[in-house]
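Memo to structure team: turn this sequence into structure tokens by end of day. - J.P.
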Amino acid sequence: MSLPERWRQWAAQPLWSLGFRPFFLAGAAFACLALLGWGLWLHGALSGLQPVAGMLAWHRHEMLFGFAVAIIAGFLLTAVANWTGRPGLSRTPLLLLWLVWLAGRLAWWLPLPVPLFLGVQLAFIPLLVAVIGRELWCAGKRENYPMVVVLGLLALFQGLTLWGLLEHQDSWQRRGELGALWLVATLMTVIGGRVIGFFIQRGLQLPPAAPASPWPTRVLLVGSLLVALSMALGGGEAPHGWLAPVFAVLAGLHGWRLWRWHQPRLWRVPLLWSLYLAYLWLALATLGMALWHLGWAVPQSLVTHALAVGGLGGLVLGMIARVSLGHSGRPLQVTGAMAGAFALLFLAAVCRVLLVPFSSLGLGGSAVLGALAFALFVGGYARILLSPRL
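Reply from structure team:
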């Protein structure tokens, strides 16, 4: 069999039929390996590892622009097909896009010239913007253009992060990372606001709720974008009194959403309580930032990891578990092992936020618990993502 024939045969596999399959599977596997490696390195077991610019820079960059961006890509490539009614990216184009993402992960461990390293790192998000922007443009879906804007800003913040890293400007590197993290929080706010209430209503077979006013959602979107931009401009380096009310408003609106969504029966359904608890971490992170900007003794690092581990990690795990089942034609029911994965990730966030101030074991414990959570997803969902839709 010739090489082109082998390529076509490989690209025709179910894994490459829609974006959520390769990016959810690879993103979760990468999170498992990256968190386990990070936890072992923290305790001296992998002290010989030396990626470009060191392990701390690698960890900061890759959990955002490696792991989180892979999941965002899988979600948006799948969602855009639903929004537009057009066939989603698949087969060879999807495989090539995934290889660009993979090259970025490998580049940290290869002796590449700086221009080539930067080119490999910065290629993926603009390609994703081009694919999604083209589909939305062709379908005339202007209401979804903000997604393209958010992805464009994410690419800009990645460039800022890498510039600071290579120029040894820790301040600029941190600005890019915090800006990107809170930009991802903006996506969590938008996507969570669209689907969590709907999932609860459908999962518990409740009558449709009366339409809510659009203004809280608009305020959350504008406020979240303002927060992300302020972080990229230095708003996370020292408390700024004017940002406290912005974060307080966001925390209040997130709390209002949680109150509006709450149903006692959701605690019996892992696919629902996992998303609800993840969104609770987002609300707590915005509240923590409000207190930090008011000058309270709330360590900003703990607030950041409440958002990153509990909010982002929890929402990702809950969403990829549900989306993978729904888009592969499986019943929307998870196994006991997957429910355990949700609980492990929640405990990872608790360790990182509440145990770290009292014991250094909280860092490694959080990393290992998070790695186990994503390992359970990979073990339980690999067959589903590699198999045809039922």
